[in-house]
Amino acid sequence: MNRTPMLVLAGGKGSRLAPLTCHRAKPGVPFAGRYRIIDFVLSNVVNSGYSRVFVLTQFMASSLIRHISRNWHLSGIQEFIEIVPAQMRMGPSWYKGTADAVWQNANLLHESRSPHVGIFSGDHIYKFAIDQMQELHEQVGADLTIAGWPVPIAEAHQFGVMEVDASGRLIGFQEKPKDPKPMPGDPTRALVSMGNYFFRRDVLIDVLGVDAEVQESSHDFGKDVIPRLLRGGAHIQIYDFGTNKVPGERDGTIPYWRDVGTLEAYFTANMEVRSSLPAVNLYNRQWRIRTAQRDYPPARLVQHSAEHALTSASDSLVCEGSIVSSTTLQRVMLGYDTFIRPNCHLEDSLIMSGCDVGEGSRLKRVLLDKNCTIEPGTEIGWDTEADRARFPFVSETGIVVLPKGTVVPREGPIKLAFDMAELMRRDPDTKQIMAEFDGRYDQTDRSRHSHQSSGPRYKR
Length: 460
Fold this sequence. Notes:
alpha/beta; 7-stranded mixed sheet
């Protein structure tokens, strides 16, 4: 096993994913029916042979910590995945940025005997043979190596945009520029930082110490640390993620990485997984994506009675413990422990675990967080104007997002779980929307957790 310490940054709030992140950290958000976002980076780390992993948490970390502590264990001597909550080691403040998060845990760097340290993002969906990046980092003798990937120029303003020379060395860096610089010879794309790094340990400790003393710094790797190293003449190498070869993948497979930082991007990435030719392969036995092992029975697709239609499912994924009864699924991601009652029609939708969709409901481009209940005969997604008038959270393209534990009657105001309503009224990313919808929603006395979760309640 590789003894290089790996720091996974998992403290982000994920503001643009609200209301999914009002009660959980972005890395703890469910993904692809049965996983959480954090499972992908941890699987990459473990599959790549690393055995000393520190997960740095901060915002709304309880469910994330519970998931990791229950489901992620390494069994060898001095092999571990250790949760490191924010501890104010460097003064009376929480993490001020990604660089400050690592600086406040500099004790982990000092205690390590490894000359190098990996720092990887815990809130992206990607498959990455990380050891190949470290091999390049050591081979060229870099102070810092950054994983890079080209994205459409229209999306590049969300990332750190990089310029490189013919040898792959960084010569220019812009953090989230309004006018991103395209790649040479390709005006449609820009080379961006994936937020994944290998540092020489001593270089990292030194630059973080300097950055910590700069009052006007935002203490962020992209905004502050990388430009500082570049100005100081450090050897910063770019690792071309396009050259990464994940064991067990088919020849010609395009490397997979998605920044699921917005509701639109998150929804699209989930839909990619359930497509007929998925961009990310979850069936690679040599590169398993690990997660919780649940004691649910197999999924069931059944005919409710002889008088009902047969269940039909196309380009959909149905997770364990779920029951679909005399219903049509078209391009649906269905989480575990869900119940879709007879005569429903669902298309282009993401349904998380514990949901109960009532008989005769019709859903299109709907994202249900966990434990939602759709009462019989409800229609969502067929009239965007009506949806925007009825539902607080509707994306730019018309995706209706229902917070955890919501009950949707056929007509009239939706019913929010009392604790979710309270959270969303306080959260800075949702409180304005909640204020605008004041008086247009009801509350239930059940919490977002109180949905019966021992398996679908199937009755003929």
